[in-house]
Prior knowledge:
There is one protein chain. By secondary structure, the chain is mainly α. It has a domain at 6-79 and 93-224. It contains 9 helices and no strands. It has helices at residues 6-10, 28-36, 44-49, 54-59, 76-86, 94-149, 153-226, 230-261, 274-345. α6 runs antiparallel to α7. The termini are far apart.
Amino acid sequence: MPTIGSYGDSRTDAAPSTSSPATTEPTPISRICRFFRSPSTSASSSAISRLRGPRANRCRSSSVGTWSLPVGHRAPAATGSSRSRSGPSSQEDPSETLDYSYEKMRDELQDVKQGIADLTTQKKRLEIQKRRLEENVEKHNEQAREAVDAGRDDLARRALEKKKQKMTQIEDLETQVADLQDTQDRLVEKKDELQERIERFRTEKETMKARYEAAEASARVSEAMSGVGDEMDETARTIERARERTDEMEARAEAMDELQSTGAFDDALSDEDDLDRELRELRSDSEVEAELETLKTEAGRGSAESDEATTAESAEESADPELEAELADLKEEESETDSETDDRAD
């Protein structure tokens, strides 16, 4: 039976790549696919056949021992090369570029996790097969004993030969399981390393996005404050036009008021001329003066009445002490009269 020792060899240097897209180093996706497509691996075909979904297209190929990317998926190396040739675009949004790179790294991490899951599944299948072979070994032992007891050495020999074959298969499976376990451990370590790098990139990405947005906002504010921006220029022109229009309307209103007050404009609905208007104003002034005199007269009469009331109140206040004294004398005389009457009675 073919061994699976090549698993470890094919993954010895398969560290997840976080280098720039312009390098030609294989990505974690390609390494995992190359690992599964190893032609010396007996379990690679079955592992590839069990892949489902989008990841299956990344590792399936028309020939054994090769791997290919799905249609429409460009390799990072080619993309990075074209970018390096053309240079960064001045209109490129760094936030979108950073988010895109972050999502690609997350996809690669997910592919690595899927590869680890597939390896673990294959290892479990081999362990199940090994347990079944061990059960067959025990079965062949029983068969050999039974044949010896029956005196059938030929049957016992055949049972022991089958047992030997199963033992050889078990040894091969143990080697394969051990190799798969080593490969799985290395993949887990690489997965953890890639995950840590992605977390660091995420932190740096958010920092760069915040700096870019702050710089962009600062530039917009500076343009607005200095009047360089198109919007600020248009706003200034609008304000200037509104100010000119307002000044014009205010001047026109003042002119109309002045002309109206001087009688330059005759009322089209009135038959009055300038003489009639002046006479009407004189009559109005006379009426105002007459009403003013009336108010003054009423105010003088009210003032006289108020003085009389004040004088009466003062007289009453001055008479009150005399009345009180006289009332006290009367009470004292009455008291003395009552006392004399009581003495006579005694």
